[in-house]
């Protein structure tokens, strides 16, 4: 099957790629219950050495610059308590971690979680973290601009491979809260 965005050799339904995915992502695919049919959730193979957004776009298609979203793990602190959450924003923007994220989580301080924490807590590889298969109970903050996209390229949970999904599917993931202005264009 041909991918709806980018220049990939092949796109396969996510359920046909379960053995290529980290365990929590494969489990999320197996348990998909959203209104977007699971067949529209796709996996595309990619070179793990080219996983960073700018290199990925140069290799697999300039159209991906506006169709990609980055998922990051954030840590919010208040009164000695730490809350972990994930945030998904268009790749062309920067996460407003000290504004929108901090306010929404109701924490005094918010920052990007350390690499080791993100990897340990998600069971995914750093640089490939995806909103699919995140730990139960985590807030998953998704920029409304991502949900509005016809097709979005996100991580697969590993540096090798990516997922292409309708933006509407992201709003149906467990723990998702869709927010306006979560990502801001660099000035």
UniProtKB/TrEMBL annotation:
Domain of life: Bacteria
Species of the source: Streptomyces sedi
Protein name: YbaK/aminoacyl-tRNA synthetase-associated domain-containing protein
Domain YbaK/aminoacyl-tRNA synthetase-associated: 51-172
MF terms in GO: aminoacyl-tRNA deacylase activity
Lineage start: Bacteria, Bacillati, Actinomycetota, Actinomycetes, Kitasatosporales
Coiled coil: none
Signal sequence bounds: none
One Pfam family cited in the UniProt record for this chain: tRNA_edit
């Amino acid at each position: 099957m041909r991918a709806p965005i980018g220049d990939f050799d092949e796109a396969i339904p996510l359920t046909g790629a379960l053995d290529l995915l980290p365990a929590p992502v494969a489990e999320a695919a197996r348990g998909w219950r959203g209104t977007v049919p699971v067949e529209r959730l796709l996996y595309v193979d990619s070179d793990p050495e080219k996983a960073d957004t700018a290199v990925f776009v140069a290799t697999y298609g300039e159209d991906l610059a506006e169709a990609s979203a980055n998922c990051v793990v954030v840590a919010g602190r208040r009164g000695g308590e730490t809350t972990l959450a994930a945030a998904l924003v268009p790749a062309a923007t920067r996460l407003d971690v000290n504004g929108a994220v901090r306010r929404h989580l109701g924490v005094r301080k918010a920052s990007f979680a350390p690499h080791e924490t993100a990897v340990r807590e998600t069971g995914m590889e750093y640089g490939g973290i995806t909103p699919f298969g995140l730990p139960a109970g985590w807030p998953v903050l998704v920029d409304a601009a991502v949900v509005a996209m016809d097709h979005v390229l996100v991580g697969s949970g590993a540096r090798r491979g990516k997922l292409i999904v309708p933006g509407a599917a992201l709003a149906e993931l467990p723990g998702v809260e869709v927010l306006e202005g979560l990502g801001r264009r660099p000035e």
